[in-house]
Amino acid sequence: MSLVLRPTRRYVLLIEDEKFQAHLFSKIIENEIAEFGYSVVTLDNGRDALKFFSGQKILEINQEEVGLVLLDLAIHDISGLQILEKINSKFLAKIPVAVLSANDDKKIRQEALGLGAADYFVKGKNLEELNRLREFIIKKMR
Fold it and tell me: What is the pLDDT of residues 15-44, one digit of tens each?
């Protein structure tokens, strides 16, 4: 009998269409989690995110290697809330999705959480929010 090993979920997938913010947040997040052996990969549009989650080879990694998705809501081609809904309907929380948004609106936060977001983080809010994000990633990736 052979033992089948499941790939390690060692990647955080950041879905962010603003290239500067994608670069900035991937570096900040990676600096916070690299010591645990985790890396960040990015997708810069909703179409590619949906293709990736439908099984197409968009990245050099597979879905099984993604332990967490950080999703910006203000994606220009497809609403981040639509992406969240599709990921959660397909994977039923096998891959947690957290929102990483510049918008601190309580109604949008509640809508995202209602659609299955594991948490909601506000970009650039303060150092405490970054620390909360770091702890969330480490907890979810274990």
Answer: 999 999 899 889 988 988 888 889 999 999
Q: What size, in residues, is the chain?
A: 142
Q: In what order do the strands lie in the sheet with 97-101?
A: 39-43, 11-15, 66-71, 97-101, 119-122
Separation between Cα atoms, residue 65 and residue 105, nearest integer Å = 32
Strand partners, 39: 11
Distance CA 122, CA 47 (A): 23
- Whether 6 shows a pLDDT value over 50: the answer reads no
Give the DSSP letter of residue 126.
Answer: -
Distance CA 117, CA 66 (A): 16
| Closest to 74 measured CA to CA, from 18, 12, 13 | 18
Residue at 112: amino acid letter: A
Whether the Cβ atoms of residue 46 and residue 83 lie closer than 8 Å to each other:
yes
User: For residues 99 and 120, is the Cβ–Cβ distance under 8 A?
Assistant: yes
What the block records as the tokens of 120 is 């909601």
